[in-house]
Amino acid sequence: MAKLTWGMIGGGAGSQIGPAHRLGAGLDGHFAFAAGALDHRAADGVAYGRSLGLPDDRSYGTWQDMLAGERTRSDRVDLVTVATPNATHFAITKAFLEAGFHVLCEKPLTMTIEEAEEIVRLAAACDLICAVNYGYSGYPLVRHMRAMVARGDLGRIRLVKAEFAHGHHADATDADNPRIRWRYDPAQAGVSAQFADCGIHALHMACFVTGQAVTELSADTVSCIATRELEDDAMVNFRMDGGTVGRLWTSSIALGNQHGLSLQLFGEKGGLRWAQEQPNQLYHMPLGGRLQVIERGEPNLSPEADRATRVTIGHAEGMPLAFANLYADLAEAIRAREEGRAMDPAANLYPRAEDGLRSMAAIFAVAQSGRNAGAWCDARPPMFR
Amino acid sequence: MAKLTWGMIGGGAGSQIGPAHRLGAGLDGHFAFAAGALDHRAADGVAYGRSLGLPDDRSYGTWQDMLAGERTRSDRVDLVTVATPNATHFAITKAFLEAGFHVLCEKPLTMTIEEAEEIVRLAAACDLICAVNYGYSGYPLVRHMRAMVARGDLGRIRLVKAEFAHGHHADATDADNPRIRWRYDPAQAGVSAQFADCGIHALHMACFVTGQAVTELSADTVSCIATRELEDDAMVNFRMDGGTVGRLWTSSIALGNQHGLSLQLFGEKGGLRWAQEQPNQLYHMPLGGRLQVIERGEPNLSPEADRATRVTIGHAEGMPLAFANLYADLAEAIRAREEGRAMDPAANLYPRAEDGLRSMAAIFAVAQSGRNAGAWCDARPPMFR
Amino acid sequence: MAKLTWGMIGGGAGSQIGPAHRLGAGLDGHFAFAAGALDHRAADGVAYGRSLGLPDDRSYGTWQDMLAGERTRSDRVDLVTVATPNATHFAITKAFLEAGFHVLCEKPLTMTIEEAEEIVRLAAACDLICAVNYGYSGYPLVRHMRAMVARGDLGRIRLVKAEFAHGHHADATDADNPRIRWRYDPAQAGVSAQFADCGIHALHMACFVTGQAVTELSADTVSCIATRELEDDAMVNFRMDGGTVGRLWTSSIALGNQHGLSLQLFGEKGGLRWAQEQPNQLYHMPLGGRLQVIERGEPNLSPEADRATRVTIGHAEGMPLAFANLYADLAEAIRAREEGRAMDPAANLYPRAEDGLRSMAAIFAVAQSGRNAGAWCDARPPMFR
Amino acid sequence: MAKLTWGMIGGGAGSQIGPAHRLGAGLDGHFAFAAGALDHRAADGVAYGRSLGLPDDRSYGTWQDMLAGERTRSDRVDLVTVATPNATHFAITKAFLEAGFHVLCEKPLTMTIEEAEEIVRLAAACDLICAVNYGYSGYPLVRHMRAMVARGDLGRIRLVKAEFAHGHHADATDADNPRIRWRYDPAQAGVSAQFADCGIHALHMACFVTGQAVTELSADTVSCIATRELEDDAMVNFRMDGGTVGRLWTSSIALGNQHGLSLQLFGEKGGLRWAQEQPNQLYHMPLGGRLQVIERGEPNLSPEADRATRVTIGHAEGMPLAFANLYADLAEAIRAREEGRAMDPAANLYPRAEDGLRSMAAIFAVAQSGRNAGAWCDARPPMFR
Questions:
Q1: Smallest Cβ distance to A315: which of D26, D29, D319?
Q2: Rounded distance, CA D20 to CA D135, Å?
Q3: CB of D295 within 8 A of CB of D304?
Q4: Which chains pack against D, by 3+ Cβ pairs within 8 A?
Q5: CATH architecture for segment(s) D139-312+353-378
Q6: Chain C residue closest to A286 (CA)?
Q7: CA B209, CA B271: separation in Å to the nearest integer?
Q8: Which positions in chain B have a beta carbon within 8 angstroms of at least one beta carbon in chain C?
Q9: Number of Cβ pairs < 8 A linking chain B and chain D
Q10: Least CB-packed of A63, A384, B49, C270 within 10 Å?
């Protein structure tokens, strides 16, 4: 298989997300890193790109330069990853889609629901891939949960319980720490802090594994550290379009939790439990049976899990490989288009612009409900109502 | 120490709660089982009481007989345990208090808030002990949580997260099982099923460890099995009079959970986590430190934990001993009164009529909020507003 | 059922084992505590016995007095528990058996193999119960392990792996602590310290669950704290008479382990894992299947487990109830004899003099092998060779 | 940093270890995959190499061709990985070292102690890197264990307890499965099966974290499945040159264990516990303190752990990243040599030929002791006696 090529906007020196994307894209050898505009300080970005091995003429100073440079090349990149500050996602994603590039955008896709709807419409009109990086959906056993639900192993899903609660912002004396402060400042973070940052991952997973969308929700949002304008803890009750009831807790003051992303599903015929911190085990309780441990890598799991598994049973697999699974999905999606064939359904699992849009709508609904004493709000984007 | 004596109403042949009370009361030798009216079928109750070693004249056919018989004896029982069907708790408790007996009543204390207020007033007026059996507060490490909060180890408590979610009513085909059906029938169970049955224990624990009372709450109650009139799953957000935010999940359809009672506390200076299924470990996360395991039985815990511990560190201790701790508290309370001295503060932890009253108010508030799309409701009993 | 009566030798004020026996014997109401010689300081023992409610004439100053007093009573105790210093077990047990009493002796049964053989022969000749307190065999799920092996669920057992490794003697500066020092002093403790104290429990469990006896063994015994004359850590490899290979690790310097008793079985058709610190779960791996969690209290376990279970599924049950199960077994054994009927086979599980004898032989074999660089030694008592 | 280049011998189509090496070498971008002789079927290997992107002239048919081709190139590979059948490791490693290449050889380094000594001498004489792939030493928290021991956090290490016990060869009906049978056949596997395959990893880790070498050992080796000529289960007791006592259990019939590599250290001042299946937590028990959880990625760990960490705290990291850490060490070692500077001490942790030699000596000692009823054997290579 010829390698695809790939470029990145953002993710300059010192960023955490840049290396994660390069690692994820490169892990399986699907994508060669071929172009970049890595820093808003143009000279720094150019130099850093070269230090990472980009050719001189493809380490750009700005995303506009990169757009201009790549669009005219015959060997232009097959995929553009957008990992810039949130407020710029919309403009960059839009511009690259309009120029005919497939895009993987960091979450959030945009800052408003209207922008997200525009991206969804644009990607559909152009017939281009516009993925959004809800990376936890790449874990093999998360994909297996989805497969089990889809094939009916659990019967109708009555309830989904999701959590993403950590304790890394529990220190009130950190209030002036610039790495933390901006997150709770509406001017910089928008209408929501902890829910938009972490809770939304848990909500995406609830949708991903059930195959359902959120219709309405009620939120109790609080600032446990009183100086914060935005919430550091929220409980969200929701309803899904397939009839499932949802409950989601997110927190950044939950001392004792290191990461705290977990998912429980309760269906008519069984329950499932998975936690990101121990991602290689999935606990399955069949109705009337005993709790069983499903191991990543065991024989005869679903095609979705098998495709996303690299390491044999018993060895720990972790987050970078989950991340790489999204890139592997995208490689398959791009190749299938190039080759004019249907893509492997076990790869057709990457989050897409619609997910980004639904997430934006959920975030705004949480903020609205939180301001209104938990009043139930419509959580659907207008275009899907 | 001379043994105290003790009698029981209810808990006849085949009941689960009867043996638990006899075991708890007898475990430390504080109470001798001396009288009983064990069954609403009078002859059966008399025979069963004799088979348990009660003297012929103190194995009564009805609670009214027992009241009449005991009140005139010079060696009348020191404590009466009421473990009859819920609807009879009020009348029996009231009658025995009026006759000057100390009472331990099973939960719920009454069927209405008004009745509970009457019991609270009566016990206060008579200066009698009226305890309510929220038995999980007897676990040594639950008492240690309370002690840690009280002495300030965690700073102000920002958030308490409680769960009591099991999966034992998840089988929809069980709908006609008489052991389950009545629980979801308002005619028999009142305004609430799963919250009143299990959730209220979790709420009591949240109050017990924080030393705070609930002021208002918002509930999302659902019947995951649609044929049930009362809820089998509920999420309750609440506020406490010391400023703590609360979140409580209870469920009976959570397949994979065997019992599912757990408590997390998040304070300014640290977090705590405890689960009933592994009650001998308490997880403590000090702010800026590492997660630590506090073991039941380790040296230099609090007096509250030490007093409630019988078995050395490392050995499993379980529910029957937690139960016995309530009886040990009551023995100390009764003896202190008899001897005209202050009771050991480490024993002054048994749940009392006020807790039963507050629980009733919470149950009614949950039902009201659940019927009103989660509208926030006052959860305080009228007499405490 | 009329209560049986019960007396105790040893277990005076301040002892740990005394309350444990009284709790275990009294828990189910099978035995009334009726006589005692509780302390080698006669006056203290008499006073303590009275404080526990013994009648004046049955709180004895010495075991000889108790023997003389009880043997002539028509209501003499049905069972005598011996919980005195190790060196006195033989003489007391022998004297009471000769006088026709059933005996439960603390471990070790004797100080020598010869003495143990004498007790075994005596108990058989008198047709009396002589039990030895290997109390961990009372746990419901340990009994269920035995039942699963017996009914063939695991096929032939290839390997048993046992551990009893704690860290409570890891502090070298404790060398002069009198509560610890004597344990490592051959003059007081005999030929073995940690193996005889803890390892022997794990070995008994290996025998109990497999239904096999140890034939030979090889031991590596070390004193990790160099000032100790006897071992504080040992690894024992052994062979059993049903062909099972055994491995057993015991330690008192294993910092991080609070108790550390666990058992793993590996058979042709499946594996089992159980640990005392979480005694309410048993992990079962069927060949070709998935790891499953067997819960104490779940429906359709074995009669052996069901009989030993008091509390419903999901609630923690612990050591005191395991202990009580031995007393319940003994009550059934005594009653069956009195009533001239076969005893309930699910109760016929209490450790007996033969187990005490085999344990003595194993301890001497470990000491001998340890002194001889791990040379394999016959671990069978002479009378069973 | 310019990329280094790297070639591989073995690891052709369908192999498990080939992708693991390519992933590990490529993950951080240190090494470009530049040459290979991937299959003993020459044409298949050439074609597979090209499919992986190797240039036509560097996808070789045999390792001899690769040696001839690479040795004369000015851009010859910086590192050669040997992942061929065990019996060929010696000849290939020797030839490439003699030609001046750095080598990373899969375990076992050789088939005999004499060969391993020859490699050690050769590498030293040539001043070349000869690493051996004991990949578990790449886990960040394993490296942190080593750092804690080295800086004295635990005091003198009294005991190390290692396990590598899985259940994947427990099915006796698998006896004719060719993927399993050869492992227990001395003609193909040498003197040891399970110890040489898995146990040796655990032994290497015991040496790695303590910084000590094994001096003598006693082994109990058994074939639980009787048709196997070589052992499928072994217990090894050993002594180390710093005075630490060791115990190691390895098994392939331990049903219920998926992987089963774990390590416990017990020192004068504390204990540590780590297990490969949950590699992101390390349990630390300080003497007189409480069990604490050390998290991979937490601030202020050792430089050794920090250097080996890519993902932030709370996210799961797994085996592929551990593997990549060895390649990162080798890249640093090669670059330091090229640049004539001392290498980063936190990278100087890759296993080397001496480790391979010591492992060979241990394997032969285990086999010898196993044949001789556990007699203690010298486990040191002759050149280190």
A1: D319
A2: 11
A3: no
A4: A, B, C
A5: 2-Layer Sandwich (3.30)
A6: C292
A7: 13
A8: 1, 3, 16, 19-20, 22-23, 26-29, 51-53, 166, 168, 258-260, 276-280, 295, 310-321
A9: 19
A10: A384
- CATH code assigned to C139-314+353-371: 3.30.360.10
State pTM to two decimals: 0.94
What pLDDT does residue B89 have? 96
Q: Which of D310, D311, D316 sits opposite A316 (nearest CB)?
A: D316
pLDDT in tens, A116-147: 999 999 999 999 999 999 989 999 999 999 99
Residue C51: its chain B contacts at CB < 8 A?
Answer: 1
Provide the shortest C-alpha distance from residue A268 to chain C (in Å).
20
Alpha helices in chain D (DSSP H): 17-26, 42-51, 63-71, 89-98, 113-126, 140-150, 178-181, 186-189, 194, 200-210, 303-307, 319-339, 353-371
CATH second-level architecture of A4-133? 3-Layer(aba) Sandwich (3.40)
Report the complex ipTM.
0.93
Whether D293 and B295 lie within 8 Å, measured CB to CB: no
* Selected residue of B28, B290, B309, B319 to mutate for chain C interface (largest C Cβ count, 10 A): B319
**What is the 8-class DSSP label of residue C293?**
E
The span from the CA of C192 to the CA of B123, in Å, is: 60
Rounded to a whole number of angstroms, the distance from the CA of C49 to the nearest CA of chain B is: 12
Q: Which fold has domain B139-312+353-371?
A: Dihydrodipicolinate Reductase; domain 2 (3.30.360)
- Pairs of residues, one from chain B and one from chain C, whose beta carbons lie less than 8 Å apart: 100
Name the one residue in this structure whose structure tokens are 């065999």. Answer: C137
Per-domain boundaries in chain D:
4-132, 139-312+353-378
CB proximity list for B186: less than 8 A, separation 6 or greater: B229, B230
Q: Give the best residue of D160, D255, D284 to mutate against chain C (max C CB count within 10 A).
A: D255
| Cross-chain residue pair B19–C295, CB shorter than 8 Å | no
Mutate to test the interface with D, among B273, B282, B291, B295 (most CBs of D within 10 A): B291
The confidence band for B358, taking pLDDT boundaries of 50, 70 and 90, is very high
The two beta strands, C281-286 and C270-275, are antiparallel
Q: How confident is the model at residue B58 (pLDDT cuts 50, 70, 90)?
A: very high
- Tokens in use for A314? 């018993």
Helices (H), B27-100: 42-51, 63-71, 89-98
| Burial of C346: CB neighbours in 10 Å, binned 0-12, 13-18, 19+ | middle
Residue for token digits 């899969």?
D106
Cα dihedral D248/D254/D259/D263 (nearest 10)? -20
The yes-or-no verdict on residue D140 having pLDDT over 90 is yes
**Fold (CATH) for A139-313+353-378:** Dihydrodipicolinate Reductase; domain 2 (3.30.360)
d(CA D192, CA D363): 7
- Give the nearest chain D residue to B296 (CA atoms): D290
Closest CA to C136 of C164, C156, C111, C158: C164
Closest CA relative to residue D66, chosen from D85, D104, D92: D92
pLDDT, tens digit (0-9, with 9 covering 90-100), for D187-227:
989 999 999 999 999 999 999 999 999 999 999 999 999 99
Instruction: Tell me the CATH number for domain C4-132.
Output: 3.40.50.720
Nearest-by-Cβ selection for A292 from C291, C295, C298:
C291
Helical residues (DSSP H) of chain B, grouped into ranges: 17-26, 42-51, 63-71, 89-98, 113-126, 140-150, 178-181, 186-189, 194, 200-210, 303-307, 319-338, 353-371
Collect all residues of chain B within an 8 Å Cβ-Cβ radius of residue D290: 292-295, 298
CA B337 to chain centre: 23
Taking the CB of residue B338, how many other CB atoms lie within 10 A of it? 11
Unique residue bearing structure tokens 């309350």: C19
C225: nearest CA partner in chain D:
D158
